[in-house]
Write a structure and sequence with these properties.
By secondary structure, the protein is of the alpha/beta class. The chain is about 10% helix and about 25% strand.
Amino acid sequence: MKILKITLVLCLVSTLAFSNVSIKEKDALLAICEATKGNQWTITWNLDQPVNTWYGVTVEENKVVGLELPFNNLNGELPEELGDLVHLEAINLFRNNISGALPNTLGNLSNLKTLNIAFNKLEGELPSTIGNLKSLVTLELFMNRIYGQLPQSISGLTQLEKLEMFNNELVGSIPSQIGELKNLKEIYLSSNHLTGKLPSTLKNLNQLQVLSLFDNKIFGAVPASLGQLTMLEELILSDNLFFGNVPTDLANLDNLKVLMLNNNDLKGDFAALASALPNMIQFEYKNLNDTKNTAVADTD
């Protein structure tokens, strides 16, 4: 009986220790709760209970490492205190009503691997401090109202594999520093207001599988150097201002399954290009001035 009591006491002490996050981290969570009207969340927090019992909060070794509250009716702006959760590895606030700009303190989260605040009402410019997220693998901010340019500081995101910022209000050209992100596999920047020419540094992204840039105002020739991206499976450049001949180098993309060039002012032997791509599933190249539909879909 005595041994059983000692065991129960040890378990209780262990449980309390597990949930004993720092005051600074707990205060940061409370600030997020207050700023986003936590009392109106779909699933609320019982603030009288230990932090590790709060919905969507993951605690490991007394540190808050996860904050995942998708579809939870968060309303309001993210506070500066978000940056006090310095041990965070994952943030998922998908499909809420979060507004305002991302706080500059976001750059404090050097352990962050995934950031998903897509399908909200974020606005303002991306903070330049985002380049401090050296561990970030996935950045998902699509379906918001973020404006301004992609900061050159994104060169700091050396571990990034997925960049999803489609359906925002981004302007300016794609910074050449994007070519320094050698681990990038997917880029989704469609439906923004991007201009300028494609940076030549894109050729450095030899792991890239998806490049989706449709519905922007990007102009100039399609770089022949894209033909060096041999891992590419989807190249979507529709609804831009590209002109000139389609480079024959694209025939080198043996893994390409989707090629969409329509609604530009491009010329070339599209039939020969299509036949040279062995894995092609969808190929669309109807130009702005064409009178007939030249889209090709081949599922063989």
